[in-house]
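Researcher: We're teaching a course module on how sequence relates to structure. For the next exercise, students receive a sequence and then see the predicted structure as tokens, so they can try to spot secondary structure elements on their own. Here is the exercise chain.
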Amino acid sequence: MPEYEAGPLSGVPEGEAREFVLGGREIVLCNVEGEIYALQGMCSHEDLPLDGGEVDGTTLVCNWHGATYDVCTGRATGLPATEPLQTFETRVDDGRVFVTIPG
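Model: And here is the predicted structure for the students to work with:
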């Protein structure tokens, strides 16, 4: 599966979901205590962007309707979302973030 460079680790601050378009897909990256997680970039509830959503611990909160997700697994943890988010593998190498996106 192809791997894409998202940019520097400094571009993914703790506490906020940041959107990137990689491999033609919108994803959000979340930094949880230095671990980077990648999820589909659109809320499963209303297909609205998760960019800028708050990350509190391992919980991502959608800015639009307050749906919550587990950043580590993509599992929907709070209404109105009931469907999980797709997750993607990440790695950090020499201060750069890479994400594997299926073709």
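Model: If you want an answer key for the exercise: The mean pLDDT is 96. The two ends are 6 Å apart (CA to CA).
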